[in-house]
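Project channel, design review

CF: Before we commit to the Arabis nemorensis constructs, I'd like one complete example in the thread so the newer folks can see what an input/output pair looks like. Taking DUF538 domain-containing protein.
RD: sounds good, go ahead.
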Amino acid sequence: MSNLLILIASFLFLFNLPSSLADSDSPTAYSILQSYNFPVGILPKGVVSYDLDTTTGKFHAYFNDSCKFNLVGSYQLNYKSTISGYISENKLTKLTGVKVKVLFLWLNIVEVIRNGDEMEFSVGITSANFAIQEFLESPQCGCGFECKDSKFDMFERKSPFVASS
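CF: and here is what came back for DUF538 domain-containing protein:
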């Protein structure tokens, strides 16, 4: 029995409990983002749980279902019910589960880098920069920032993914 307790304690040390199973004092997925110097708005509202290996930065964030929404004047985004990748200070890499529609193509967002007051989103073949101010609030699945209860007006965005940087 004591070996089982040691194994469980070791596991919990390496991996945080999913937020839905942890006590109310545990950090949310959004506060974890902030601890790595990212704004909460790069993750839509509705994360039901997450896990993070703090030694490697490997993470998973879970929604009840896929999450789709449009951003004002520009892109359609699609988050699968599970997104994953690696997080470190100012950098998200090897992302899976997040797509953006550019013109007629759905492209995977594979990396996000914070550089000062800008966020760079890479789809592999090209990237686009946005002001960090555009990510101060999390969008809502279904309606993005155009929800009736949203208090934050998004900036009109051009399509920086269309031209290579």
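RD: helpful, thanks. Residues 2-14 form the longest helix (13 residues).
CF: The beta strands are 49-52, 58-62, 67-70, 76-88, 91-102, 105-108, 111-115, 118-122, 127-131.
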